[in-house]
């Protein structure tokens, strides 16, 4: 983006600068969230950077990456538990949950 628009993007008379570091942080948060299957990585990255303008794109990227990763593979922590053959509580199917 910064290569295509070196001076930024003009919208409604305001020039919005493109910061490659923001894209890097959002990509890192999405990758970490996908590997661990957690959304809290977005909050952690947001707290580390302190950029309030990045919170919405970061949350969207982490949630989308998490949705894709959950369909493809178990989380890193579940994989370690399975490799070490440790006892764990299996996930229950929705039909087994009883509401009172």
UniProtKB/TrEMBL annotation:
A GO cellular component entry from the record: plasma membrane
Location(s), subcellular: Membrane
InterPro entries, alphabetized: Cl-channel_core (IPR014743), Cl_channel_volt-gated (IPR050970), ClC (IPR001807)
UniProt-recorded Gene Ontology molecular function terms: voltage-gated chloride channel activity
Keywords for this protein: CBS domain, Ion channel, Ion transport, Membrane, Repeat, Transmembrane, Transmembrane helix, Transport
Membrane topology designation: Multi-pass membrane protein
Pfam families assigned: Voltage_CLC
Organism domain of life: Eukaryota
Record bears the keyword Membrane: yes
Protein name as catalogued: Uncharacterized protein
Lineage, broadest ranks: Eukaryota, Metazoa, Chordata, Craniata, Vertebrata
């Amino acid at each position: 983006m910064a290569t295509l628009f070196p001076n930024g993007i003009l919208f409604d008379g305001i020039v919005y600068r493109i910061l490659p570091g923001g894209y890097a942080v959002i990509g890192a948060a999405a990758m970490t969230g996908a590997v661990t299957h957690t959304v809290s990585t977005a909050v952690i990255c947001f707290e580390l950077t302190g950029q309030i303008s990045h919170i919405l794109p970061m949350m969207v990227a982490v949630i989308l990456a998490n949705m894709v990763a959950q369909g493809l593979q178990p989380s890193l922590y579940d994989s370690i538990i399975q490799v070490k053959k440790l006892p764990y509580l299996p996930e229950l199917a929705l039909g087994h949950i009883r509401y009172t």
